[in-house]
Amino acid sequence: MLALPPELIISAYANGLFPMAKDRHDPAIHWLDPLRRGVIPLDRFHIPRRLRRTIRKQPFEIRIDSDFAAVIHACAEPLPGRPRTWLNDELIAAYIAMAERGFAHSVECWQEGRLVGGLYGVALGAAFFGESMFSRVRDASKVALVELVFRLRAGGFELLDTQFVTEHLRRFGAVEISRQEYRVRLRRAIVKQAEFPTAPYSFASRALASESGSSTGSSQSSTHTS
Fold this sequence. Notes:
The relative contact order is 0.20. The radius of gyration is 17 Å and the shape is globular. It has helices at 6-14, 49-57, 68-75, 89-100, 140-155, 167-170, 179-190, 203-209, and strands at 18-20, 30-32, 36-39, 61-64, 104-111, 114-124, 127-135, 159-163, 175-178. The chain is an alpha+beta fold. It starts with 5 loop residues before the first helix and ends in a 17-residue tail after the last helix.
């Protein structure tokens, strides 16, 4: 039996909390409920122009949930600019169990048969809680994020929770909202039906390839450019 049951994590998300460890080898789990919460408005998602061109070239094979365990372990690896990560063994095991039950999903970028980037998160109703991402080659995690947003739009999701806002996420349109506003949005989203699409092709590549080149685009794929 898992020390941290998936049901406990799901209940926490539904009430606005999320778990973290202080670092990879810290066994303690801390439950966070920040005063300010990061979200990416799905209707105002921003794709930088260079990244848009990259996605049209389809440099990666997009897979969904094909190796969730590899994705979360990669997210837990220390990096030169990130020597400490918040995922410990208990959390990793719990999220893998959630993926096996269909509550957690991974968006993966593969290149020549190798996993080179991706992200994972938790889906609950029409809310998706983005947890962590990693990249082993240029743009892989960014492509995964764009792919995630296009899939969430297609699946009927309304809330993309990023927990915190970093400068990296601001480039994609992430904003901070108050705890009170977040809880209002959360309560509205989790009671609605949405389905995380798992089709084996890139939603983002198809959408961007079909654009006419106009900066306005359709409401489905409209994004700012820079």
